[in-house]
């Protein structure tokens, strides 16, 4: 039997056993698992044609790339918008614009679904080694790893993906994962801080912190500061301006409470509307970006380019976390207003990929990007809210993160 047929047969057999086991005992298989099943025969046939294409042809259009990873089946994209409206909604950075990333290593948090999945996929298609860490069920995370690596093999990419389960709501778990990567990886060129709790109701973590704040902000504070020395060592020999950190913020940061101060833990632990909880952490990521640039990356050897850090807005994305974001009145209003302009997850990944890889950002102009927030690819800095520009609150945010981390980890990390 040919290799491809054996793979298809094996995939179907495995899936049949999974579904039989699920039907026989225990809870039913979640809908997302059914959507991320082992590669179907139809999608496998689509992928078979990829191997015969030239390297340039294998950098396919977004629709073809989506079809090539049939285990991650999404709705067929809507017809393209008129050019004028498309321009109004923001500039585009297509995945085929990503340079060759051979020999480079990237880390994507929350890379098992949504925008993060396509961040990881596109970086790996460009031949990078990609590490994914996320808080997710074992079947879900492992299936993402299998799906992407299968697509990479069919596309003859030299990239790879490996997934690690990390509870992002447990700072000790995040710290342990970061230190493991720090000790095992010889380099880290790209860090995409994408994982996050969406617009979900207030909840506390086992660390005694509000979940949005701990997952969206504190976990990335710890991860970034632990991995920064490795990234700085990488920047010493990598092409200037190519070692970058990207924070996945949002234009929704404008809806953060106007009285946000980030002065005390009691403030972030206070119960409020889920959209406000989410928006406040997206504001926090803009502060984290600026403080990293000013506190950690402002000094560097003459003639060199430091690690670059930017915050971005992916656009109004019809992502998994947003599909669950209709419990509060503000979330419902936002969903109604953006229904006609939402992007797919794949399109939402473009801005992040631009910030992480665009060669137009280089040793000559990197200062224009360092520590700034961008609401679109090729956008102008300085468009964030006045609250996001407040230096005192940014300083409060950094100090609050440092205090919470010291309390939970028992050491100073700043």
What does this structure look like?
- The structure is a single chain.
- By secondary structure, the protein is an alpha/beta fold.
- It has a single domain, classed as Rossmann fold (3-Layer(aba) Sandwich), CATH 3.40.50.720.
- It contains 16 helices and seven strands.
- Strands 3-2-1-4-5-6-7 form a seven-stranded parallel sheet, with helices on both faces.
- Strand 1 (105-109), helix 7 and strand 2 form a beta-alpha-beta unit.
- The longest helix has 25 residues, at 211-235.
- The model is unreliable at 1-89, 319-326 and 336-340 (pLDDT under 50).
Break the fold down into its secondary structure elements and pairings:
Layout: H1 3-24, H2 31-35, H3 41-48, H4 55-58, H5 62-68, H6 83-89, E1 105-109, H7 114-125, E2 129-134, H8 138-154, E3 160-165, H9 171-184, E4 190-193, H10 211-235, E5 244-248, H11 265-268, H12 274-295, E6 308-312, H13 320-323, H14 329-338, H15 345-357, E7 373-374, H16 391-409
Parallel strand pairs: 1-2, 1-4, 2-3, 4-5, 5-6, 6-7
Helix pairs in contact: 7-15, 9-10, 10-12, 12-16
List SSEs in N-to-C order. HHHHHHEHEHEHEHEHHEHHHEH
Estimate nothing, just give the exact number of structural domains. 1
What is the distance, rounded to the nearest whole angstrom, between the alpha carbons of the first and last residues?
58 Å
β-strand number: 7
> Any idea what the shape is?
globular
Which structural class best describes the helix and strand composition? alpha/beta
Give the strand content: 5-15%
Number of helices: 16
According to CATH, what is the topology? Rossmann fold
The CATH architecture can be named as: 3-Layer(aba) Sandwich
State the major sheet. 7 strands, parallel
Regions with little confidence, pLDDT below 50 for 5+ residues: 1-89, 319-326, 336-340
Report strand order across the widest sheet: 3-2-1-4-5-6-7
Q: Give the name of the CATH superfamily.
A: NAD(P)-binding Rossmann-like Domain
- What is the CATH C-level name? Alpha Beta
